[in-house]
């Protein structure tokens, strides 16, 4: 199976974290289907930084030589990843000519509570003005991300002529599956980048990682290390612990963020499931995993963990089901979706 | 309590927080600054400004957090906000001048992540338009200040440091300083003030940029002219704003016309300092009222009004914060310094007692003076004494500033008695616009450096110079209509007649369990200014050989007498505040020559041998003593003249010298005491 037509990717490859990892996975996944051009944009947002390591590795592995800051980007389908990289500049700085422009919305447009997450209108406006296309689409990456795009569109209005793709442009989670333990213990942990948005208020953290737990492992706890963490927490800075070792220290991934921010996809939760752990998060974030992540309030975490510890069979059953659900985010699933979206011919010569 | 925070933890951001805190506090809001955000190095004046706001957040209940400078919210600030664990009842406002929509969204989001809920956002770019100072962190809102009293207009000239490089600047300013139609004040940044004070133009009144808050400057100024390339920073911009809002005149003399191009209702003045005097004289002074009225009508000023900021923040100004005349008459608060002894406090109580019914004066005094003041029936707020144990030499004065600031308010009268005007007193007078009187005895020693001491004289509405008993001693270092000389401030006790004196000596003897055939009183001080142990021991030894002689060594309560005096059978050490009553009974007094003791002994015709104390920081006691002895009204013996002292004691007690001096003192014509006059001057009731 191949995809016909020229395909161009547009992004700032210096994006740290999820976006670059997701695009790197994506490029590897579609390699059997097509050989896209990759246009790198030097946005103001990441001035002075190097390309993200996962993307650089993917470029090298796939033999992709990105074109930096082309004046014109033309292809049948142009896929622009994460428009928020334009938020600190007034214009796009290039022209895009294509049949179909797909803008993958890695970041939520609105934060919980309805505040704008970034200057979405400004970023989409830049892209809109720079692009001549038969169709311009937004591609949300998850159900929650889609909801914020829709809510933003209802409030502020999408640029004229734009639509929202019906299916999610999900992050590929082709992760090796580790079987769950048969003797779960109250060993809790969380890992994330160290940003303030990734952490719930201190009171919530206290609830999630109590003194009576056998272990509380927080990886990416740079904030707590700076402020002084309770003695019953094992805190490690971001990248301070190998992920495999971290997962070996816990049986439950308890992941809450600042109430004013929410993951658009939640790759850390997928990683925990793949590592054979029970993942617990807020209901909205959990909703994206089809029951694979347990949605709860912080006050309910203790009870949930206790119930699983007392019933190891239920623990293993839940993890296996969650791992099975992750298949929906596989590279194969993405290829099928990609072929459907990109392969469709838009417009034809009269 | 409202906590003022800033996006970044820099010195500049802290200063901006101070500006906001001061302004909001003046509007009646209860404001605090997080003590942990205090920069390591804080200018001395900033410490005074910050002292009343700094707080340990663990001890206050916050109702609101206002975060200024939110264009850039640093990691440390976010960490601080997160660590506060603010409850939902604490409103959080994010204030900044956001260049674009993304900046505002990012600022709000950062704070939202740190506190776990959404803050309110105030975009000053929308509220006020372009800022006067491009990189300003504080909101720069204009608040009205109370009108200065009806007096000669005060012109403030704000100069950049570079202005002092022009050799003509200071001579021009000195010429302006001598114009009769207004009084000149200069504001300089950095070391500018020290530079001027070290020049021959030291007589100019100079302030540092941060010596007073902008509101305090605005309270003092009628006209301000700003020089330099552009608007000279946030503090001076805030000063100009308050001035304009108060209906007074701001003149933009900057080369870039920074105020004018920013839209502020200022006058465009000359860029040359040399042209300023004529401009002020012929353009400003004649139209001062109208210029102020027009400025106040400016729509630009309306958008910059503090009320607009309060409204955007959802703050309700506390009732009664609008400047209002203080109820008249204000309270009179005496602040005597504690010098070598308690002389300043004693003098102040004498004046306070002369104020009569209705004045109800009160005191703020150092611990050593508090009992004396309270014993005289006055309320007394204790101040803090300097101590080598304090971390900084002015640490006590910071506390005193807070205490004075709390008890004094506009309309009160502050009376300071002392040689050096502390920062606490200077600032309190200027910040509250107090009617201040400086009681400053004369008789400076030749060559004493008084520049620093006298530099602050202009903060006082008047200086009272208590007179000396002898005319040639009445010299002072400053002059002018504000300097009022009054007669000697002296305690007056009724003179006992011979029978009463005899009876009281018998009573004294009974109290001490011994006969009082002869009474000698020694008052040579508490040993702070000079060690008089040798003199006291010599006197005790000499008087021990005189049968029936009672030798009292009198010191202030709490003072330490030299050890070993108690072994002399005729000598007793007495701690009392009422030394004069004992002296009236004495056949001879040997005394230091401080102002109070000298005049009390003279006015009560007590035969005295004066042993002057001399130190660089003291008045000229030897001149004072010799003025009396040269007239045959006392004897002067210097501290090292122990043999002469012995001879004189014998002459007084055995050769009739004491009686001769007593007779001479009884008929000498001394000036009328000035206690009543000094009280009248302070209360504005003097007859001139």
Structure description:
The complex is a heterodimer of chains A (350) and B (688). In chain A, helix 5 links the parallel strand 8 (187-191) and strand 9. Chain A has a seven-stranded parallel β-sheet. In chain A, strands 10-9-8-11-12-13 form a six-stranded parallel β-sheet. Chain A is of the alpha/beta class and 350 residues long. Chain A folds into two domains: 7-172 and 330-342, 3-Layer(aba) Sandwich (Rossmann fold), CATH 3.40.50; 187-328, Glycogen Phosphorylase B (Rossmann fold, 3-Layer(aba) Sandwich), CATH 3.40.50.2000. The model of chain A has no long low-confidence stretch (mean pLDDT 93). The radius of gyration of chain A is 21 Å and the shape is globular. Chain A is built from twelve helices and 13 strands. Chain B folds into four domains: 2-128, Rossmann fold; 154-313, Rossmann fold, CATH 3.40.50.2000; 332-489, 3-Layer(aba) Sandwich (Rossmann fold), CATH 3.40.50; 498-667, Rossmann fold, CATH 3.40.50.2000. Chain B has 27 helices and 25 strands. Chain B is α/β, with parallel strands linked by helices and 688 residues long. The interface between A and B is medium-sized, with 26 and 20 residues.
CATH homologous superfamily classification of the largest domain in chain B: Glycogen Phosphorylase B
Overall helicity of chain A: 25-40%
Mean pLDDT of chain A: 93
CATH-scheme architecture of the largest domain in chain B: 3-Layer(aba) Sandwich
Q: CATH top level of the largest domain in chain A? A: Alpha Beta
Q: Describe the biggest sheet of chain B?
A: 7 strands, parallel
Mean pLDDT across residues of chain B: 89
β-strand amount of chain A: 15-25%
Number of domains of chain B: 4
Count of helical regions of chain B: 27
Oligomer state of the chains in this structure? heterodimer
Q: What is the count of DSSP helices of chain A, taking H or I runs of 4+ residues? A: 12
CATH topology description of the largest domain in chain A:
Rossmann fold
Gyration radius from CA atoms of chain B, angstroms: 30 Å
